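Morning!

This is the sequence you dropped in the shared folder:
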Amino acid sequence: MASDSSKVWSVFSLVSALGAAALAKQGLDKTWRLATGKKPPENPADPDVELREAIAWAVASGVAVGMARMLAQRRAASYYARSTGHLPPELRKDHQKV
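The structure's back. Tokens below.
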């Protein structure tokens, strides 16, 4: 049973994180256009992209996507706990990784 619960949580967590990351990226793209008047860099590693712009994009996108994924996973864990009566196996304090 714990294995099934773990698999359900893994899929649920992954889907919520990917969805949140995609939404964060869309929001960040729009915000970047409003703030700079330009499209976000497609590839910040491209030498034709100014270093300051590449760094700003990397920091902004890393923070936005990371926070969105974390918040989505927290909400997913809360929903999981309300639905099952306990936290997902990986988030329980008594869970030991083998």
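Headline: The two ends are 17 Å apart (CA to CA).

More detail when I'm at my desk.
O.
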